[in-house]
Amino acid sequence: MKKSLVIAVLAFIISFTLKAQVDVSGHFYGEDAFKFSQYKNYGTARTSGMGGAFTALGGDASNTFVNPAGLGFYNRSEFSISPSFNSSSTTTNYLGQSAIRNSSNSSIGNVSVIFNGKSRGQSKMKSSFGISYNNLVNFHNEFDYQGDNNASSIQDYFAEQATFRGANSSTLDSEFDPVTGIADTPEAMYYQAYMIDPYENGYVVVEPSFPVSQSGRVSEQGNLGQLNLSYGANIQDKTYLGVSVGLQSLNYNSINRHDESFPNGEVFNAFANQDELVVRGTGVNLSIGMIYRITDDVRFGLNVTTPTALRTRETFYSAINIDQKPNTFQTDFQTIEVVPGEFDYRITTPLRANAGLGYVLPGKIGVISAEAEYVGYGGMNVNDKQSQAWSSEQNRGIEDYYKDVINLKGGAEFRFGKARVRGGVNYLADPYVSDNGLNRSSLILSGGAGFRSARFFADASYSANSFDTAYSPYVLSVPENFDTAVTTNRSGILTFTVGTFF
Questions:
Q1: Could you report the per-residue pLDDT of 428-449, keeping only the tens digit for each?
Q2: Three-state DSSP string of 319-387
Q3: Ranges of each domain in the chain
Q4: Could you tell me which CATH class the domain 3-501 is placed in?
Q5: CA 55 to CA 291: how far, in whole Å?
Q6: pLDDT in tens, 116-164
Q7: Are 186 and 209 in contact (CB under 8 A)?
């Protein structure tokens, strides 16, 4: 599918309220770049239980991603695996009505093997090499919305898109295969499904009655995973240096279903529009870190991760199913589809930098740590080699829409013999330039416990998070004519880690 077609179709996929304020024709791909870049608590149960504040600490498999310099703390080799279980509850308010949905899923949060090396020469330099897989982003998300609309229908969006394109009815007829019932363009699909009719210099809706009973469901699945090849060196138990190469794999799927029914309908009883988006991508980044012992008990850590260059391909499917009134029109197809389309583009994710302090409590009864994380969301980039103008327009939208942030993390671990107790907090700052009445900052609270013996360890953690998002099933040129669903999300992640030394 041509890029212009994909942009037109995707205009109401995973939309947010602020998109109407960004001067971008069609779909704003900055939203996708942000979605694929928003890391929360990840890694082993030990790291997530301490709020992810591990930049100045070492000796954990999560160091392969968080700060590879921490591998220098290893004195023996290790294997570990960390399954995680995610649950979420969403409450959505749309057009004065609310809908609640609960969902859950499971995944492998981290699996790692660390190979500890021997000391080298009289300098007593030690090193370790680690291979790990981290599930950085879990896209699992489901919510419903419903309400009675007295201002517009998604048909109005269809009519605006067809008017904007400027194609006449003959052209839209030629873009439809009467044998298969498949259209070449979304405008042809709207027209052949009897959603729109030509009028003067544009198009109008076929079913004009109100109210319009609207409902829908958004379902997102997939993950952003990263394979890390990491090396950490210990120089005289004072300075620790590390480097890591990250190979990312992106798997994202979304299904958006929007239903409308017409209690006072003249042409339609109801219809349903369903869109499916599949995104696959691969990318690479580089992470460089250090940890320095200021004193025996105080450590300073620093880590910088380059932006990830993601080569991305998306495939889009769309269909409309109609239920018309008797004696209105005749059609051979109750369901009209668009030819599946593909679009290749590149995403550059934000630069990340972490600086933290760790303090070993007297008597080595535990450790506390705190850190600040810089994330350069304003520097994200979207690029299509075939259209520099499109790329520039998208990136101006990113600059207008997102800003750089400083996230704050803190955690503590207390030791009672072989037992461990942990707690942490992770504050994610609001990355949007305009709040639009919503505070999109997020606070993740976590806690956990663990057990360590000479050959075996086991940990568990739980992270709780609550945040608000906004979603528009469709957008129109006049903002007052469409509404936005505001969703309160409450999610929890239960992570277990089991490992052995060798």
A1: 999 999 876 677 889 999 999 9
A2: EEEEEECCCCCCCCCCEEEECCEEEEEEEECCCEEEEEEEEECHHHCEEEEEEEEEECHHHCEEECCCC
A3: 3-501
A4: mainly beta
A5: 8
A6: 987 655 557 899 999 999 999 999 999 999 999 999 999 999 999 999 9
A7: no
